[in-house]
Protein backbone atom coordinates (compact mmCIF):
# COMPACT_ATOMS: atom_id res chain seq x y z
CA UNK A 1 0.00 0.00 0.00
CA UNK A 2 2.63 2.65 0.84
CA UNK A 3 4.35 2.40 -2.56
CA UNK A 4 1.01 2.55 -4.34
CA UNK A 5 -0.01 5.52 -2.24
CA UNK A 6 3.24 7.32 -3.03
CA UNK A 7 2.57 6.87 -6.76
CA UNK A 8 -0.97 8.11 -6.36
CA UNK A 9 0.19 11.14 -4.39
CA UNK A 10 2.68 11.97 -7.14
CA UNK A 11 -0.29 12.32 -9.52
CA UNK A 12 -1.74 14.98 -7.21
CA UNK A 13 1.53 16.89 -7.44
CA UNK A 14 1.16 17.45 -11.17
CA UNK A 15 0.81 20.94 -12.66
CA UNK A 16 -2.67 22.35 -11.95
CA UNK A 17 -4.01 21.72 -15.48
CA UNK A 18 -3.27 18.02 -15.13
CA UNK A 19 -3.57 17.40 -11.40
CA UNK A 20 -5.90 14.85 -9.85
CA UNK A 21 -7.52 14.73 -6.43
CA UNK A 22 -5.79 13.05 -3.50
CA UNK A 23 -6.02 9.26 -3.30
CA UNK A 24 -9.29 8.08 -1.67
CA UNK A 25 -7.18 6.32 0.99
CA UNK A 26 -6.27 9.79 2.28
CA UNK A 27 -9.92 10.31 3.20
CA UNK A 28 -10.73 6.98 4.82
CA UNK A 29 -7.64 5.10 5.97
CA UNK A 30 -6.91 5.21 9.75
CA UNK A 31 -3.14 4.82 9.12
CA UNK A 32 -3.12 7.86 6.85
CA UNK A 33 -5.05 9.81 9.43
CA UNK A 34 -2.55 8.88 12.13
CA UNK A 35 0.29 10.02 9.88
CA UNK A 36 -1.49 13.30 9.23
CA UNK A 37 -1.85 13.93 12.95
CA UNK A 38 1.85 13.34 13.52
CA UNK A 39 3.23 14.58 10.20
CA UNK A 40 1.01 17.62 9.65
CA UNK A 41 -0.80 18.70 12.82
CA UNK A 42 2.09 18.10 15.23
CA UNK A 43 4.82 18.87 12.75
CA UNK A 44 4.45 22.39 11.48
CA UNK A 45 2.36 25.52 11.64
CA UNK A 46 -1.38 25.15 11.95
CA UNK A 47 -4.08 27.81 12.19
CA UNK A 48 -6.08 28.25 15.39
CA UNK A 49 -8.55 30.83 14.11
CA UNK A 50 -8.98 34.42 15.20
CA UNK A 51 -6.75 35.83 17.90
CA UNK A 52 -9.53 37.85 19.55
CA UNK A 53 -10.67 34.61 21.18
CA UNK A 54 -8.09 35.75 23.78
CA UNK A 55 -8.42 39.50 23.35
CA UNK A 56 -7.30 40.84 26.74
CA UNK A 57 -4.30 40.09 28.98
CA UNK A 58 -5.31 37.11 31.13
CA UNK A 59 -7.87 35.68 28.65
CA UNK A 60 -7.47 32.00 27.88
CA UNK A 61 -9.09 29.32 25.74
CA UNK A 62 -8.55 25.60 26.31
CA UNK A 63 -8.84 23.48 23.19
CA UNK A 64 -7.96 20.02 21.96
CA UNK A 65 -6.13 19.94 18.66
CA UNK A 66 -5.13 16.64 17.03
CA UNK A 67 -5.66 14.88 20.37
CA UNK A 68 -3.38 17.34 22.18
CA UNK A 69 -4.99 19.47 24.92
CA UNK A 70 -3.73 23.03 24.61
CA UNK A 71 -4.08 26.36 26.36
CA UNK A 72 -4.03 29.49 24.25
CA UNK A 73 -3.70 32.64 26.33
CA UNK A 74 -2.61 36.24 26.34
CA UNK A 75 -0.12 36.99 29.08
CA UNK A 76 0.04 40.17 31.17
CA UNK A 77 2.34 41.80 28.61
CA UNK A 78 -0.20 41.13 25.83
CA UNK A 79 1.87 38.36 24.25
CA UNK A 80 0.01 35.41 22.79
CA UNK A 81 1.19 32.08 24.22
CA UNK A 82 0.32 28.46 23.68
CA UNK A 83 1.02 25.74 26.26
CA UNK A 84 0.43 22.03 26.65
CA UNK A 85 -2.61 21.75 28.91
CA UNK A 86 -0.85 19.21 31.14
CA UNK A 87 0.36 19.94 34.65
CA UNK A 88 4.09 19.42 35.16
CA UNK A 89 3.37 17.51 38.39
CA UNK A 90 1.32 14.52 37.30
CA UNK A 91 -0.23 15.69 34.09
CA UNK A 92 -3.70 16.90 35.06
CA UNK A 93 -5.63 19.19 32.75
CA UNK A 94 -5.09 22.70 34.05
CA UNK A 95 -7.82 24.74 32.36
CA UNK A 96 -11.07 23.98 30.59
CA UNK A 97 -13.34 26.19 28.49
CA UNK A 98 -12.66 29.89 28.14
CA UNK A 99 -12.24 32.69 30.64
CA UNK A 100 -9.91 35.14 32.24
CA UNK A 101 -7.34 34.45 34.93
CA UNK A 102 -4.28 35.99 36.62
CA UNK A 103 -2.50 32.66 36.89
CA UNK A 104 -3.03 28.96 36.26
CA UNK A 105 -3.65 26.78 39.28
CA UNK A 106 -3.83 23.02 38.91
CA UNK A 107 -7.07 21.74 40.44
CA UNK A 108 -5.40 18.44 41.45
CA UNK A 109 -2.65 19.39 43.94
CA UNK A 110 -2.41 23.14 43.61
CA UNK A 111 0.75 23.70 41.59
CA UNK A 112 0.40 27.17 40.14
CA UNK A 113 1.88 28.80 37.10
CA UNK A 114 2.29 32.38 35.90
CA UNK A 115 0.81 33.36 32.54
CA UNK A 116 4.28 33.10 31.00
CA UNK A 117 4.23 29.42 31.93
CA UNK A 118 6.79 29.55 34.74
CA UNK A 119 6.00 27.65 37.93
CA UNK A 120 5.16 30.13 40.69
CA UNK A 121 4.36 27.74 43.51
CA UNK A 122 4.18 24.04 44.32
CA UNK A 123 2.70 23.37 47.79
CA UNK A 124 4.85 21.26 50.17
CA UNK A 125 7.45 20.61 47.49
CA UNK A 126 10.15 22.42 49.52
CA UNK A 127 10.77 19.10 51.30
CA UNK A 128 11.43 17.36 47.98
CA UNK A 129 15.23 17.26 47.55
CA UNK A 130 16.70 19.24 44.66
CA UNK A 131 13.28 20.26 43.36
CA UNK A 132 13.84 23.24 41.09
CA UNK A 133 10.85 25.35 40.19
CA UNK A 134 12.67 26.88 37.25
CA UNK A 135 12.86 23.50 35.53
CA UNK A 136 9.14 22.82 35.93
CA UNK A 137 7.40 25.41 33.79
CA UNK A 138 4.70 24.48 31.31
CA UNK A 139 5.63 22.98 27.96
CA UNK A 140 5.35 25.89 25.54
CA UNK A 141 4.75 25.82 21.79
CA UNK A 142 5.73 28.34 19.14
CA UNK A 143 2.84 30.68 18.54
CA UNK A 144 2.30 33.80 16.43
CA UNK A 145 -0.33 36.27 15.38
CA UNK A 146 -0.60 37.58 11.79
CA UNK A 147 -3.46 39.62 10.33
CA UNK A 148 -5.56 38.75 13.39
CA UNK A 149 -5.10 34.99 12.96
CA UNK A 150 -3.35 32.68 15.44
CA UNK A 151 -0.79 30.15 14.25
CA UNK A 152 0.97 27.58 16.42
CA UNK A 153 3.51 24.85 15.92
CA UNK A 154 4.14 21.86 18.16
CA UNK A 155 7.46 20.92 16.56
CA UNK A 156 9.62 23.68 18.01
CA UNK A 157 10.44 26.09 15.23
CA UNK A 158 11.64 24.05 12.29
CA UNK A 159 10.68 26.97 10.08
CA UNK A 160 9.83 30.56 10.77
CA UNK A 161 6.14 31.55 10.67
CA UNK A 162 6.80 34.34 8.17
CA UNK A 163 8.68 31.92 5.90
CA UNK A 164 5.72 29.55 6.17
CA UNK A 165 3.20 32.25 5.28
CA UNK A 166 5.25 33.93 2.53
CA UNK A 167 3.10 36.53 0.75
CA UNK A 168 0.02 35.88 2.87
CA UNK A 169 -0.15 39.27 4.56
CA UNK A 170 0.79 41.20 1.41
CA UNK A 171 -1.94 39.56 -0.68
CA UNK A 172 -4.59 40.37 1.93
CA UNK A 173 -3.46 43.96 2.41
CA UNK A 174 -6.71 45.47 1.00
CA UNK A 175 -8.76 43.97 3.86
CA UNK A 176 -8.37 45.32 7.42
CA UNK A 177 -8.03 41.76 8.74
CA UNK A 178 -6.06 42.56 11.88
CA UNK A 179 -8.70 44.83 13.36
CA UNK A 180 -11.81 42.74 12.67
CA UNK A 181 -14.01 41.67 15.57
CA UNK A 182 -15.39 38.15 15.84
CA UNK A 183 -19.08 38.48 16.61
CA UNK A 184 -20.05 34.83 16.32
CA UNK A 185 -18.29 31.53 16.97
CA UNK A 186 -19.64 28.02 16.38
CA UNK A 187 -18.04 24.63 16.84
CA UNK A 188 -19.48 21.49 15.32
CA UNK A 189 -18.53 17.98 14.34
CA UNK A 190 -19.07 16.99 10.72
CA UNK A 191 -19.19 13.41 9.45
CA UNK A 192 -16.50 13.80 6.84
CA UNK A 193 -12.75 13.87 6.54
CA UNK A 194 -11.23 17.24 7.56
CA UNK A 195 -9.74 17.83 4.10
CA UNK A 196 -12.98 17.60 2.15
CA UNK A 197 -14.57 20.13 4.48
CA UNK A 198 -11.85 22.60 3.48
CA UNK A 199 -12.04 21.51 -0.18
CA UNK A 200 -15.69 22.39 -0.61
CA UNK A 201 -15.30 25.80 0.97
CA UNK A 202 -12.60 26.61 -1.55
CA UNK A 203 -14.14 25.61 -4.84
CA UNK A 204 -16.57 27.36 -7.16
CA UNK A 205 -17.59 24.23 -9.04
CA UNK A 206 -20.33 23.10 -6.64
CA UNK A 207 -21.99 26.48 -6.15
CA UNK A 208 -24.70 26.25 -8.79
CA UNK A 209 -25.51 22.65 -7.85
CA UNK A 210 -25.31 22.49 -4.06
CA UNK A 211 -26.37 26.11 -3.44
CA UNK A 212 -28.69 26.53 -6.43
CA UNK A 213 -31.46 28.30 -4.49
CA UNK A 214 -29.39 30.20 -1.94
CA UNK A 215 -26.02 31.45 -3.22
CA UNK A 216 -25.37 29.95 -6.63
CA UNK A 217 -26.20 33.15 -8.51
CA UNK A 218 -24.03 35.43 -6.36
CA UNK A 219 -20.71 34.38 -7.73
CA UNK A 220 -19.33 35.44 -11.10
CA UNK A 221 -16.63 33.52 -12.95
CA UNK A 222 -13.61 33.83 -10.61
CA UNK A 223 -10.15 35.07 -11.52
CA UNK A 224 -7.44 32.46 -11.96
CA UNK A 225 -6.04 31.18 -8.66
CA UNK A 226 -3.21 33.43 -7.46
CA UNK A 227 0.32 32.14 -7.89
CA UNK A 228 1.71 32.77 -4.43
CA UNK A 229 4.82 32.16 -2.36
CA UNK A 230 3.92 30.53 0.95
CA UNK A 231 1.84 27.65 2.29
CA UNK A 232 -1.52 28.97 1.18
CA UNK A 233 -3.77 29.24 -1.86
CA UNK A 234 -6.09 32.08 -2.75
CA UNK A 235 -8.59 32.95 -5.46
CA UNK A 236 -10.59 36.12 -5.93
CA UNK A 237 -13.89 36.48 -7.75
CA UNK A 238 -16.37 39.28 -8.22
CA UNK A 239 -19.84 38.85 -6.76
CA UNK A 240 -23.27 40.29 -7.46
CA UNK A 241 -23.60 42.16 -4.16
CA UNK A 242 -21.99 40.71 -1.04
CA UNK A 243 -21.01 37.06 -0.67
CA UNK A 244 -22.06 37.36 2.98
CA UNK A 245 -25.82 37.42 2.36
CA UNK A 246 -28.28 35.14 0.63
CA UNK A 247 -29.30 36.15 -2.88
CA UNK A 248 -32.72 37.30 -1.71
CA UNK A 249 -31.33 39.45 1.15
CA UNK A 250 -28.89 41.63 -0.75
CA UNK A 251 -30.83 44.80 0.13
CA UNK A 252 -29.58 44.42 3.70
CA UNK A 253 -25.84 44.64 3.01
CA UNK A 254 -23.70 46.22 5.72
CA UNK A 255 -21.20 48.97 4.79
CA UNK A 256 -18.02 48.29 2.87
CA UNK A 257 -15.01 47.54 5.05
CA UNK A 258 -13.06 50.73 5.74
CA UNK A 259 -10.32 51.27 3.18
CA UNK A 260 -11.59 48.63 0.76
CA UNK A 261 -11.61 49.97 -2.80
CA UNK A 262 -11.24 48.96 -6.44
CA UNK A 263 -11.86 45.33 -7.39
CA UNK A 264 -11.52 43.95 -3.82
CA UNK A 265 -14.60 46.06 -3.01
CA UNK A 266 -16.60 44.14 -5.62
CA UNK A 267 -16.02 40.52 -4.66
CA UNK A 268 -14.72 37.88 -2.31
CA UNK A 269 -11.27 36.40 -1.83
CA UNK A 270 -11.23 32.74 -0.77
CA UNK A 271 -8.01 31.72 0.96
CA UNK A 272 -6.84 28.40 2.36
CA UNK A 273 -3.89 28.63 4.76
CA UNK A 274 -2.44 25.13 4.73
CA UNK A 275 -3.16 22.82 6.27
CA UNK A 276 -6.34 23.53 8.18
CA UNK A 277 -7.65 27.09 8.12
CA UNK A 278 -9.66 28.83 5.45
CA UNK A 279 -11.60 32.05 5.13
CA UNK A 280 -13.52 34.27 2.77
CA UNK A 281 -12.78 38.00 2.80
CA UNK A 282 -15.75 39.78 1.31
CA UNK A 283 -16.85 43.38 0.95
CA UNK A 284 -18.33 43.67 4.43
CA UNK A 285 -17.50 40.53 6.44
CA UNK A 286 -14.93 37.78 6.81
CA UNK A 287 -15.91 34.21 7.66
CA UNK A 288 -13.34 31.72 8.83
CA UNK A 289 -13.30 27.96 9.27
CA UNK A 290 -10.74 25.66 10.78
CA UNK A 291 -11.04 21.88 10.40
CA UNK A 292 -9.28 19.35 12.62
CA UNK A 293 -9.18 15.57 12.25
CA UNK A 294 -11.18 13.49 14.73
CA UNK A 295 -11.41 10.21 12.77
CA UNK A 296 -10.89 9.44 9.07
CA UNK A 297 -14.57 10.17 8.50
CA UNK A 298 -15.14 12.87 11.13
CA UNK A 299 -13.77 16.32 11.78
CA UNK A 300 -14.19 19.12 14.25
CA UNK A 301 -14.96 22.44 12.64
CA UNK A 302 -14.79 25.90 14.13
CA UNK A 303 -16.46 28.87 12.53
CA UNK A 304 -15.72 32.56 13.24
CA UNK A 305 -17.64 35.42 11.65
CA UNK A 306 -15.99 38.83 11.76
CA UNK A 307 -16.85 42.43 10.95
CA UNK A 308 -14.94 45.73 11.21
CA UNK A 309 -15.34 47.59 14.52
CA UNK A 310 -17.07 50.48 12.68
CA UNK A 311 -19.78 48.06 11.50
CA UNK A 312 -20.14 46.38 14.88
CA UNK A 313 -20.75 49.84 16.39
CA UNK A 314 -23.83 50.48 14.21
CA UNK A 315 -27.01 50.73 16.31
CA UNK A 316 -28.84 47.94 14.45
CA UNK A 317 -25.78 45.72 14.01
CA UNK A 318 -27.12 42.69 15.94
CA UNK A 319 -30.25 42.57 13.84
CA UNK A 320 -28.33 43.08 10.58
CA UNK A 321 -25.72 40.48 11.48
CA UNK A 322 -28.40 37.84 12.02
CA UNK A 323 -29.05 37.81 8.26
CA UNK A 324 -25.37 37.08 7.69
CA UNK A 325 -25.41 34.23 10.23
CA UNK A 326 -28.47 32.85 8.47
CA UNK A 327 -26.59 32.81 5.16
CA UNK A 328 -23.57 31.03 6.68
CA UNK A 329 -25.77 28.44 8.38
CA UNK A 330 -27.75 27.82 5.19
CA UNK A 331 -24.58 27.32 3.14
CA UNK A 332 -23.07 25.13 5.84
CA UNK A 333 -26.15 22.88 6.00
CA UNK A 334 -26.11 22.45 2.23
CA UNK A 335 -22.37 21.78 2.20
CA UNK A 336 -22.61 19.26 5.05
CA UNK A 337 -25.27 17.26 3.23
CA UNK A 338 -23.03 17.16 0.15
CA UNK A 339 -19.94 16.33 2.22
CA UNK A 340 -21.51 13.43 4.07
CA UNK A 341 -22.59 11.95 0.74
CA UNK A 342 -19.08 12.55 -0.67
CA UNK A 343 -17.54 10.82 2.34
CA UNK A 344 -19.71 7.74 1.74
CA UNK A 345 -18.75 7.67 -1.94
CA UNK A 346 -15.05 8.14 -1.14
CA UNK A 347 -15.20 5.26 1.31
CA UNK A 348 -16.10 2.83 -1.48
CA UNK A 349 -13.28 0.48 -2.48
CA UNK A 350 -14.05 1.54 -6.05
CA UNK A 351 -13.51 5.27 -5.45
CA UNK A 352 -10.70 6.66 -7.61
CA UNK A 353 -8.69 9.87 -7.90
CA UNK A 354 -10.39 12.34 -10.25
CA UNK A 355 -9.33 15.23 -12.49
CA UNK A 356 -9.80 18.75 -11.18
CA UNK A 357 -11.57 21.47 -13.12
CA UNK A 358 -8.45 23.66 -13.28
CA UNK A 359 -10.15 27.03 -12.98
CA UNK A 360 -12.96 26.35 -10.52
CA UNK A 361 -10.99 24.08 -8.18
CA UNK A 362 -7.71 26.00 -8.18
CA UNK A 363 -7.34 26.19 -4.38
CA UNK A 364 -8.22 22.51 -3.96
CA UNK A 365 -5.59 21.52 -6.53
CA UNK A 366 -3.03 23.76 -4.79
CA UNK A 367 -3.72 22.08 -1.45
CA UNK A 368 -3.49 18.59 -3.00
CA UNK A 369 -0.08 19.55 -4.38
CA UNK A 370 1.10 20.94 -1.03
CA UNK A 371 -0.20 17.85 0.78
CA UNK A 372 1.49 15.45 -1.65
CA UNK A 373 4.83 17.24 -1.27
CA UNK A 374 4.54 17.74 2.47
CA UNK A 375 3.60 14.10 3.05
CA UNK A 376 6.45 12.83 0.91
CA UNK A 377 8.94 15.18 2.62
CA UNK A 378 7.79 14.21 6.10
CA UNK A 379 7.92 10.56 5.23
CA UNK A 380 11.52 10.95 4.01
CA UNK A 381 12.61 13.01 7.02
CA UNK A 382 11.13 10.71 9.59
CA UNK A 383 11.95 7.47 7.79
CA UNK A 384 8.28 6.51 8.18
CA UNK A 385 6.32 4.58 5.64
CA UNK A 386 3.44 6.75 4.64
S1 LIG B 1 -1.23 17.10 38.71
FE1 LIG B 1 -1.19 19.24 38.89
S2 LIG B 1 -0.60 19.62 40.90
FE2 LIG B 1 -0.67 17.48 40.76
FE1 LIG C 1 -20.52 25.39 -0.42
Please outline what is shown here.
The chain has 386 residues and is α+β, with helices and mostly antiparallel strands. It is built from nine helices and 16 strands.
Give descriptors for this structure.
386 residues, Naphthalene 1,2-dioxygenase Alpha Subunit, Chain A, domain 1, Rieske Iron-sulfur Protein, binds FE2/S2 (inorganic) cluster, binds fe (ii) ion
Walk me through the structure.
The protein is of the alpha+beta class and 386 residues long. It folds into two domains: 2-41 and 167-382, Naphthalene 1,2-dioxygenase Alpha Subunit, Chain A, domain 1; 46-158, Rieske [2Fe-2S] iron-sulphur domain (Rieske Iron-sulfur Protein). The chain has nine helices and 16 strands. It has helices at 2-12, 30-41, 161-165, 168-171, 194-202, 207-210, 309-312, 317-346, 362-382, and strands at residues 45-50, 59-65, 68-74, 80-84, 98-100, 104-105, 112-113, 119-121, 140-146, 149-153, 181-190, 232-238, 267-273, 277-281, 286-295, 298-307. It has a seven-stranded antiparallel β-sheet, with no helix packed on it. A hairpin with a 2-residue loop joins β15 (286-295) and β16. The chain is globular and about 70 Å long. The model has no long low-confidence stretch (mean pLDDT 95). The site of FE2/S2 (inorganic) cluster has 10 residues, from loops.
Amino acid sequence: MPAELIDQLAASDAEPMLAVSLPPACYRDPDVQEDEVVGIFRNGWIGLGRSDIVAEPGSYAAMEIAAVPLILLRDQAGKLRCFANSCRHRGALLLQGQGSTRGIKCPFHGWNYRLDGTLAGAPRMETSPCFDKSGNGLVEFACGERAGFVFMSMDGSRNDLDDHLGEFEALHQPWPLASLITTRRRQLEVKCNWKIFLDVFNEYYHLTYVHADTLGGLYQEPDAGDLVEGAFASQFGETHGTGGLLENQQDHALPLMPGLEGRPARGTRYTWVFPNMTFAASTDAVWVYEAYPVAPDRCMVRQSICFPPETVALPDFEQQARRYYERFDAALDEDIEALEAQQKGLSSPYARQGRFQPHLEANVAAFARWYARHTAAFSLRSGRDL
